[in-house]
From TrEMBL:
It comes from Paenibacillus shirakamiensis. The keyword Cell inner membrane does not apply. Keywords: Oxidoreductase. This is Arsenate reductase. Its EC number is 1.20.4.1. Transmembrane segments: none annotated. It is an enzyme of class 1 (oxidoreductase). Signal peptide: none annotated. GO terms for molecular function: arsenate reductase (glutaredoxin) activity. SUPFAM superfamilies: Thioredoxin-like. Belongs to the ArsC family.
Amino acid sequence: MSTLIIYQYPKCSTCRNAVKWLQAAGYELDLRHIVEAPPTEQELTQLVEHSGLDLKKFFNTSGEVYKELGLKHKLATLSELEQIALLSSHGKLIKRPIVTDGTRVTVGFKEDMFSEVWG
């Protein structure tokens, strides 16, 4: 089975659950600390493209940094490049975990979605 890259925050219970699920499914994992080493702008651009999701889905809208920066109202005024730059500069702004095999990408953890994509 291929190795999956997981951008995650070790203290996050959702991330820990995702890691457990993927390990139980037999995947080798390359765990990356999303706060200490957030994905670069180039990596984020590729992740967004491969995910097929709207860029907004990559924002941790319930996080403190999102609220502190007032992004609920500001996000719509930023270009896609500005949004990606913002995400890559603040790991806590990124919804987690992000899982990728280089082709497929999932954001967040829901068991049914993981079963469909990684099962």
